[in-house]
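Hi! If you just cloned this repository, the fastest way to understand the data is to look at a raw example. We've pasted two of them here, unedited. The first protein comes first, obviously.
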Amino acid sequence: MLATTVVAATARADDVRFQVQGSVQAGYTDNVAQAPDVQQLPDDPAREADGLLILSPTLAMFVEDAKVLHTFAYGFGATLYFTHSKANSYSHGLSYVSRWNLTPATDLALGLSGAYTSTAAFNLLGGATQTTVNLLPG
């Protein structure tokens, strides 16, 4: 894919287009750690609220001639919590698609994509050595 990118970068300027998109969202959750709605035991974690910000910019490059369109794209996503940074998550995605115009009625498209995601599981209980299991009365 690196060799294709280098070749695409040397194409004439009128054959290459770039597109930048993005979104920013803000939100609120009353249960950032997914604690139970009702505390079963006194040691159970309580629900905790937090605000969050979701960022998702993307960049795409299109290389086109009369018969083929190549698309290279990168996207990034982040969910950022204001006070519970351990719950933040991030993702990266890359894609490449080539579409050939074989005849006026026939196109052929081939693509490749990959993604990497880092999702945090925020836990109010602590580690396994800090958590004890008690029998419920009853």
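Ok, and the second one:
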Amino acid sequence: MSLTNHRRFLRVGQAMASYHEVRKQLGGDDGPPWFVIHRGDVILACTLREDLNPTINSNPAEVWVGADETLLEWGKRLAFKTVEVPLFVSSGQGMGYEERGTYKIIGNTDDATELAAREAQPGIGKLSRIVFLKKS
């Protein structure tokens, strides 16, 4: 299934049962990292939890990428992705995902001061990058 017709299966505002249901509908691989749905090295969508990305509802929306080795690589792929990406958001672990629409990557930073400001928030671990999104 191409990304251009994913809306046949998913509607904006529709609560999804789980990350895995969204992943299956988009034809993504069953494996980490969990903040993106991917097929091979291609990012098909972002799947973010509000508790780990508390500024996801801001304008611009922010994706906070963790510092684990696998996350570093995928965070860089997302940051330099030139096409739009569907965004799915969950309020927390074990909660369903809601499609928020399609977003453009408009920038990113790995500035230590910017990362430290976000890491200071309760429940947020070490970050490697912030990716900024704007609704298409």
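That's it. A detail worth noticing about the second one: The two ends are 21 Å apart (CA to CA).
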